[in-house]
Each structure stands twice: as structure tokens, then as C-alpha cells.
């Protein structure tokens, strides 16, 4: 059995996360228990989105995972798990960029004229 992951709430509105998986070629939504055929070339895509505000985590797909991370023969559940992990892994990585922009007045709209 796969170890469950507790997904964190939306970072914007604290809404509940929803995880969906798709056939990457057809765009058809697939059930979580979609059977995996190792002889098939089927590719999958999954992402987490907020039920309330619609914020979306990164789109994770099996083709990109194969090309850039050398992870092959992934089932839909594998791709959905990675999407859930990446939803939970978001943090203030870019906070220093925001703070630097704040010092220069770049976080205002409209920006002051130069």
C-alpha cells in the first residue's frame, strides 16, 4: 500500500486542495485507480488545484519526468503522488526576489514613474 500524503491547504486562501489526473494525449480525466499497462505508451498528467480560488500547483507529466528526471514507466498514481509532493513543497524560495523588488518599489501597481 502507498503511504498517504496529507496535502497542505492553498497558500492563498487556505482552501482545500483537489488532485486530478489526466491522460496527457486526450486530456481525459482518469480515475485514481486507472490501471497501468507497462506495454502501453500512455502518458499521464496531474496537478493540484484549490477548490475555492482555483490556484494551481505545477503540472506534472510523465513525459517531462522521463526526459528531465529520468523517471520512466510511471503509473497515474505515481504522477499524482509527485504532483501532491510538489504542491506541498512550495515555500518562500523567491521571497528574496520579492524583498529586493520591495526596496525598489517594484511591487506596487501602478508603479511610480521614473
Can you characterise this structure?
By secondary structure, the chain is of the alpha+beta class. The chain contains three helices and four strands, in the order E-E-E-E-H-H-H. It has one domain. Helices cover 26% and strands 16% of the residues. Strands 2-1-3-4 form a four-stranded antiparallel beta sheet. The relative contact order is 0.19. The model has no long low-confidence stretch (mean pLDDT 89). This is Restriction alleviation protein Lar. Pfam families: Lar_restr_allev.
Please describe the structure with a list of short key phrases separated by commas or semicolons:
114 residues; alpha+beta; four-stranded antiparallel sheet; 26% helix; 16% strand; elongated
Largest sheet, spatial ordering of strands: 2-1-3-4
Helix-strand category: alpha+beta
Number of helical segments?
3
Please give the number of β-strands. 4
Taken from the alpha-carbon principal axes, the silhouette is: elongated
Largest beta-sheet characterization: 4 strands, antiparallel
Write the H/E string, N to C. EEEEHHH
Mean of residue pLDDT values: 89
Stretches where pLDDT is under 50 for at least 5 consecutive residues are none
Amino acid at each position: 500500500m502507498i503511504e498517504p500524503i496529507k496535502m497542505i491547504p492553498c497558500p492563498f486562501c487556505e482552501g482545500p486542495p483537489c488532485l486530478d489526473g489526466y491522460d496527457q494525449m486526450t486530456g481525459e480525466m482518469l480515475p485514481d485507480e486507472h490501471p497501468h499497462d507497462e506495454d502501453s505508451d500512455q502518458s499521464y498528467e496531474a496537478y493540484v488545484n484549490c477548490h475555492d480560488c482555483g490556484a494551481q500547483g505545477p503540472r506534472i507529466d510523465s513525459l517531462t519526468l522521463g526526459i528531465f528526471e529520468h523517471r520512466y514507466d510511471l503509473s497515474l498514481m505515481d504522477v499524482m503522488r509527485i504532483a501532491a509532493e510538489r504542491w506541498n513543497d512550495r515555500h518562500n524560495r523567491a521571497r528574496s526576489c520579492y524583498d529586493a523588488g520591495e526596496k525598489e518599489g517594484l511591487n506596487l501597481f501602478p508603479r511610480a514613474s521614473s
